[in-house]
Amino acid sequence: MPQIPDFIADQTLNPGHHGDGPEPEDTALDPAPMLHVPAGPDVASGNEEPATAVTRMRQAAALRLAHPRRFRAGQLKGIRRMLEEQADAICAALAADLGKPAVEAMLTEVQPTRSEVDHALLYLTDWMEPESAKVPLAFRPASAKIEARPLGTVLIIGPWNYPIQTLLGPLVAAVAAGNSVVLKPSEKAPAAAELIGRLIPQYLDPRAVAVVQGGAEAVQALLAEKFDHIFYTGGERVGRIVYEAAAKQLTPVTLELGGKSPCVVADGRNWPAIARRIAFGKFTNAGQTCVAPDYVLAVGEESQRQLEKHLPKAIEEFYGRDAQQSPDYGRMVSTEHLQRTVALLEDSLSGGGGGDSASTGEAAEGGASSRSGVEGRPPARLVHGGRADVADRFLEPTVVADVSPDSALMAEEIFGPVLPIVRVDTFEEAVEFITARPHPLAAYLFTDKHRYHRAFEERVTAGGMAFDVALLQVGLPTLPFGGVGASGLGAYHGRAGFETFSQLRPAVTKTDQVDTLRMVYPPYTWAKRQALKRLL
């Protein structure tokens, strides 16, 4: 049997007794008995069979193992200890999978998750406390409350682009809400997945959290099981598969998908700062960020001119003249993803001529921007970058201008380090451009005109917004994070995550010492009808 960490065992063997204040009502029942954790390497290595993992977690949910507040706090503290003690191992895994610099890994993966843990620990007692609800005069004397109850057993399917933060962030919310959890790391980030599989049983109670490894077959096997909630982060295509499978069992879902997040630049005073903020938002993690600015709408000739002037300067300031040699620039997750991204770039630069994806690395190396359009669409213009090295999974931070709205770059989420600039003449045209397309996960506006802020907030629908900055809205545990429409369903972070993994259950209590409901009992006499007209 894998060793349960002492700090967890001390808290969970008798969850009905605590030294730091009373527990919620549900902990007054007999403590949950110890569950049998299967012997062998599967649990300890975090690589169980789907059916086995789900059965164990459903047993834990049935015995209410994860319900007590102190158990939840112990799990959260275990996540925090893991992030602190294994920070170097986490950074090494992220470097192996995505070429992430250690500072970037800490900034975008470790620290945001740590902030989520600290925020949850700070407010956990408040979140668990029942909330009083008002009772109309006609129903008094009575009391009403809303209480957050654990859903049961939840499945969290993580993506490969931020394989630590986007798996452990939802885990923080799920354990804070008192659920047992099955984690499915992405097989496309194998080093991070293997690390998560090893560390979770060491730092969290393996009776309440299981890890299942594998690819599409493992996901299909998990989706065939019964869960009380499914949380998926990834692309729209697989999101539809998850949604369809969940619908067959009436399982609620949270889908964190993505989309083409627009960045409108209407005017500005500090163009170097604007360029740096856009470049940081776009080229962090080599552009493989679901809320990265996917394209820029430059309002007017001056905005485009300034962007073309300052974006290359910002890129060189960040990564030097040769980004491939920079220790601060990441890599694409796979050669296939690199080739797909370069193919999109080549299609735009050639005016639609495109090229065989097998030759995209060579095409990006040499003069693709000089080709003329072959399908009647004007070719885009290469402003900066474009060089690729398939063997190194490297694609230079790239900026292209004069991009046609119907080019391949504008047809789907790029999810790579290519930033198209689309010229529009007016702010109104920029807003109409965005609203004519599916709702994005994020929308950004850079401008000094406050009336543009108000119009943008009123007319643009997006999962989240940020003004004069990029990515910052995702890093605040006090703000919910989620999509709308095609970019996602549901939200998490902070209290929003706690409520996502909880049932907000209403309850009413009315004394029977005085039966004030006699007025609504049959028979409905004339006197009762007149009285009810006044009361209701």
TrEMBL record:
Residues forming the catalytic site: 256
InterPro entries named among the record's database cross-references: Ald_DH/histidinol_DH, Ald_DH_C, Ald_DH_CS_CYS, Ald_DH_CS_GLU, Ald_DH_N, Aldehyde_DH_dom, Aldehyde_DH_NAD(P)
Domain (Aldehyde dehydrogenase) ranges: 48-352, 380-504
Pfam family, one: Aldedh
Biased composition (Low complexity): 357-376
Region (Disordered): 1-49, 348-382
PROSITE patterns on file: ALDEHYDE_DEHYDR_CYS, ALDEHYDE_DEHYDR_GLU
Superkingdom: Bacteria
Family stated for the protein in its record: Belongs to the aldehyde dehydrogenase family.
Protein name: Aldehyde dehydrogenase
Organism for this UniProt entry: Citricoccus alkalitolerans
